[in-house]
Amino acid sequence: MEEIKDEVTLKFLKYWEQRFKMIFEQNTNWTKLFLTIEQQNLPNGLTIEKFCTTYGQEFQMNISFKKDENANHYDLTITR
């Protein structure tokens, strides 16, 4: 991923990096995990595709998403 200088995007990415690390440290016996990201919380410079690809590669997991048009959020399915 190209270098990100936008403070809002960096803060968002740092939050999710810490969240994924915590999930992996505290929960070792899962194979599928479901999370939601509100569409309005996704920074302008970051697409959901880029988010899923980046963290999927970094943490060696598969992240797929589905946009819920009615609720304006993304449903993430994470498998490892």
Which helices and strands occur, and which strands form pairs?
Blueprint: H1 7-26, E1 32-38, H2 48-58, E2 62-68, E3 73-79
Antiparallel strand pairs: 1-3, 2-3
Essential attributes:
80 residues; alpha+beta; 3-stranded antiparallel sheet; 2 helices; 3 strands; 26% strand
Could you give a short account of the major beta sheet?
Answer: 3 strands, antiparallel
Strand order of the largest sheet: 1-3-2
Flag low-confidence runs: none
Oligomer: single chain
Helix fraction by DSSP (H/I, runs of at least 4): 25-40%
What gyration radius follows from the Cα positions, in whole Å? 13 Å
Structural class: alpha+beta
User: What does the average pLDDT come to?
Assistant: 88
Head-to-tail CA distance between termini = 22 Å
| Number of H/I helices | 2
Pattern of helices and strands: HEHEE
Number of E strands? 3
Task: Tell me what portion of residues adopts beta-strand conformation.
Answer: 25-35%
User: What's the overall geometry?
Assistant: globular
Please give a structural write-up.
The protein has 80 residues and is α+β, with helices and mostly antiparallel strands. 39% of the residues lie in helices and 26% in strands. Strands 1-3-2 form a 3-stranded antiparallel β-sheet, covered by helices on one side.
